[in-house]
Each structure stands twice: as C-alpha cells, then as structure tokens.
Amino acid sequence: MNDLAALLPLAAILALFWFMVIRPQQRRQKEVVSLQNSIQVGQRVMMSAGVFGTITSITDDRARLEIAPGTEIEIARAAIAKVDAPATGEVEDA
Fold this sequence. Notes:
By secondary structure, the chain is of the alpha+beta class. The protein has a single domain, classed as SH3 type barrels (Roll). It has one helix at 2-37; strands spanning 43-47, 52-58, 62-68, 71-76, 80-86. Strands 4-3-2-1-5 form a 5-stranded antiparallel sheet, covered by helices on one side. The chain is rod-shaped.
C-alpha cells in the first residue's frame, strides 16, 4: 500500500504533462494537416518560412505558389503554415 502511495505523485505528474503538453500539440498537428488538405487554388497563403503567395495549382504533395506577378515557385504542400485570404488584386495602404 505504501509503494502505491509513492507512485501516486509520479502518476499525477505524468497526467499533468499529458494534458498540458502532448494533447494540445496533437490538436495543433491535426489542425495543420486539415488546413493543408483544404487548400484551394486562388487562396493566399503563408509558408512556414514567412513567404506569402497565391496558390496557382495543387498536386498530391506539391503546390505552385505565385509570389510576385509572373513569378511562381513550386513548394511542398507541408510548407504551408496558414491561409491568409483569397487574392483580391488590391494593395492595402499602410
């Protein structure tokens, strides 16, 4: 009985670690995967490196990104970090 009581704090620490670190990370990973699977042509996206552009075509694991008028690059679909907004062609004033 005394040995079981000694393991109780360790079990509590492991449970706390699970709920505060591992579970939120798994949730974020699922959100990123669903975002990358829902990307469509014409959306403005940001890559994990901070490069913004508009999706011009998508294949299985790659996408073509227009980063400037007439300038396209091919990227790994997994490099897309977030969807910014659909491209409107308007430039905002700062």
